[in-house]
Amino acid sequence: MTDFTEQDLAGSTFRRVDLSGSTFDGVRLAGADLRDADLSDLRVRAAWLKGVRMTGVEVPDMEIHGELGRLVVNGVDVVPLVEAELDRRMPERALMRPTDAAGFREAFATLDRLWAGTVERARALPPERLHEQVDGEWSFTETLRHLGFAHACWVGGIVLADPSPWHPLDLPWDEAPTVDGVPWDRDVRPSLDEVLGVRAQRRATAQAVLDGLTDGGSADEGLAREVSSATPFMTEASGLTVAQCLKVVLNEEWEHRLYAERDLAELPG
Predict the structure, then answer these.
(1) Residue 229 lies in a domain
(2) Domain DinB-like spans what residues (predicted)?
């Protein structure tokens, strides 16, 4: 089949063209106009969909997993409805939106409890299963490694301004830029205990921050203290606060545990 690697096809017109089964990786479709298109079984990952408008569509079966800001379906913004239903199903979810120091400490403690159950479930599986991917998503071990990177990036690299907070087992997100000195070993197969050991260290670092946390109303103290990245990641972000960084970690921990639970259920014992 034709390979269009590193080509500029901006403004091209595709009429009555069969692109079934094609792979689009690192492709810009900003401003594209799709009409009378068959998108059945389409898989979209790590996509930015701001300003997307779909009209005259038929959606007999569709799933969306991600961060939703505004999603209007037939004139109704369904995001508040979805958020309320998720909070109803998982009451602990509301704790992941803390507004004071005590709330942050409670949120992290809640995650500790929930993750303990997930890890216990993982231990019941043969060790090799924890390196298996389900539907192309990260394995259980890779998920824990990525959370180690998230802690290193947002707590170590930003809140604590450590220029090199990394551990060899850290795993950046798939689309992250390659940076010298930042580990990115896709092939290593550490044991669960090895990964949990790193995780315990990272959790202790976060707890030290939480223990000294104050609500802080000014920009130079507590939750409101402004911070910037000491690593190559998130250097373009301005006006970050300690609270914002901790909320990123909370969100990563919450969402990836749900992904892990979903995928563990699919792995054979």
Answers:
(1) yes
(2) 111-259
What's the predicted TM-score (pTM) here?
0.86
Q: In this structure, how many other beta carbons lie within 10 angstroms of the beta carbon of residue 139?
A: 18
Contact 172, 182 (CB under 8 A): yes
Residue 85 lies in a domain: no
Q: CA 238, 240, 244, 245: dihedral to nearest 10 degrees?
A: 100
Structural domains in the chain (count):
1
Nearest CA-CA partner of 140 in 269, 266, 251, 263: 263
Positive or negative, the Cα torsion across 233, 238, 242, 246?
negative
> Which CATH number goes with the domain that contains 164?
1.20.120.450
Digit-coded pLDDT (tens) for 57-93? 998 999 998 889 999 999 999 999 999 999 999 999 9
In a domain, 38, yes or no: no
132-171 tens-digit pLDDT: 999 889 999 999 999 999 999 999 999 999 999 999 999 9
**Residue 77, in any domain of the structure:** no
Question: Could you give the CA distance from residue 190 to residue 227 in angstroms, rounded to a whole number?
Answer: 33
**The two structure tokens encoding residue 24:** 């689009």
